[in-house]
Write a structure and sequence with these properties.
This protein is an all-alpha fold. The chain has helices spanning about 1-10, 10-15, 20-50, 55-75, 75-85, 85-105, 110-125, 125-140, 140-175, 175-180, 185-195, 210-215, 225-230, 235-265, 275-300, 305-320, 330-360, 360-395, 400-420, 430-435. The termini are far apart. It is found in: Membrane.
Length: about 450
């Protein structure tokens, strides 16, 4: 009986193995570093604006430079990763963005800050296409939303680490030092990634049981699928629309929240830490919860379409109350409303990213995510300029929070109109392969 009970007590996870979750941990670490680098400017914005005498439009131009480069980078990043593989492509991306982040320490004005942000945007454009491709390589469909939610939580961890450490570093060592401290982290990550990352079919440490569990699609040659071919499909437009409409809201949260809290509640550089940490802690919970809910519904027998869109609807509804944050009477009421919205955004985002692997084969995923990221960056450029103009001439954040509260319901309606059943795109793979062979 003891032997039998002991055998029964061996969990499925123990028999199966969990190497794929080690890969997910690496993606989480990379995304965390990505957002630390990205968020340093936002945390320091009130101080830098006073120090350099920037207007609201000056700051919006600096932010727009990052988003313009991010969009330009995504024109080719996804295709490069699809062609050369996740391992090399990801390492190059994090190397570029880390050097660019440190280059901010040499900036002396609007133009040089904008140049550093532009370089940062080029490098960071590789993060999500590479991470989503790695998830598609390493996880079965029912786990992809959870894996995407976990690594996407790195955006919130980075957004938590930045306000926790950047004000302390800047106040003691100068603002330049705040842009330098991620260099060692980045170098360590790249080294470990290059040593350890392989696709499941080439990873000797992966158990046979886990390899079978992950499953493999029929192997496809590593060829570039032109965007023009992908954009023939409504599925690609659905992902692009979701990102175009809702990504700008996340950019607003990242780059303008410290300025909003400073202007509306008089917070100092050191005083920004606790509210920003609370907001992005809530976002972290939402990122994982959004992926977990969709996966749970699928395991309960819901179709992928119903589970994905049901979770996205819940997230969209949870963002709506953020419209009241602009006129909240107390700091922590505003923090709670914004934190709920960031949590809902991240739950939404985990499912939007997973839509790419729901609707496209693995060899096209990075390119499709690149299309979505490009659309989101273009939307971010537009809203950055709009916010700069609004604040320059009205000084009110109310219109921006109104846009934030309504964006997700609009985006879901567009997505459902384009892909009512979330059906897979029927790519003409044979003709692509034949063209590559010629």
């Amino acid at each position: 009986m003891n032997d039998l009970s002991g055998a029964a007590g061996v969990s499925v996870t123990t028999k199966l193995g969990g190497y794929r979750w080690r890969v997910c941990a690496m993606l989480l670490a990379a995304t965390t570093i990505n957002y630390i680098d990205r968020q340093v400017l936002g945390v320091l914005a009130p101080f830098l604006q006073q120090n350099f005498g920037w207007s609201e439009l000056d700051y919006s131009y600096i932010v727009t430079a990052f988003q313009a480069a991010y969009a330009i980078g995504l024109l080719g990043t996804g295709a490069i990763i699809d062609r050369f593989g996740t391992r090399i492509g990801y390492a190059l991306a994090i190397g570029v963005w880390s050097f660019a982040a440190m280059a901010h320490s040499l900036a002396v004005g609007v133009v040089s800050f904008a140049a550093a942000r532009f370089a940062l945007g080029l490098g960071e454009s590789g993060n999500f296409p590479a991470a989503i491709k790695a998830v598609a390589e390493w996880f079965p469909q029912r786990e992809r939303a959870l894996a995407a939610g976990i690594f996407n939580a790195g955006s919130n961890i980075g957004a938590i680490v930045a306000p926790a450490l950047v004000p302390i570093i800047a106040s003691r060592l100068g603002w330049q030092a705040a842009f330098l401290f991620t260099g060692v982290l980045s170098a360590t990550w790249v080294t470990v990634w290059l040593i350890t990352y392989r696709t499941p079919d080439k990873q000797p440490k992966l158990s046979a049981a886990e390899r079978d569990y992950i499953g493999r699609e029929p192997s496809a040659p590593s060829v570039r699928i032109p965007w023009s071919r992908l954009l023939r499909h409504r599925q690609a437009w659905a992902l692009a629309a979701a990102k175009f409409i809702t990504d700008p809201i996340w950019w607003f949260f990242l780059f303008w929240l410290p300025k909003f809290l400073h202007s509306e509640y008089g917070l100092t550089l050191l005083g920004l830490g606790a509210p920003l940490i609370a907001i992005f802690l809530l976002a972290d919970v939402g990122s994982v919860a959004g992926g977990w809910v969709a996966g749970r519904l699928i395991r309960r027998g819901w179709s992928v379409n119903r589970a994905r869109k049901g979770t996205m609807l819940l997230c969209a509804l949870l963002v709506v109350p953020v419209v009241f944050a602009a006129k909240a009477s107390h700091l922590w009421v505003a923090v709670a409303l914004i934190g709920l919205a960031t949590a809902a955004h991240q739950g939404w985002s985990a499912n939007v990213y997973t839509m790419a692997s729901d609707m496209f084969p693995r060899h096209a995923v990075a390119s499709v995510v690149g299309i979505g990221g490009f659309a989101g960056a273009v939307g971010g450029m537009l809203i950055s300029t709009a916010i700069g103009l609004l604040l320059q001439f009205t000084g009110s954040y109310l219109p921006v929070f109104f846009m934030a509260g309504s964006a997700y319901l609009i985006a879901l309606a567009v997505v459902h109109g384009l892909v009512p059943r979330l059906e897979p795109a029927l790519l003409e793979t044979s003709s692509i392969i034949a063209g590559a062979a010629e």
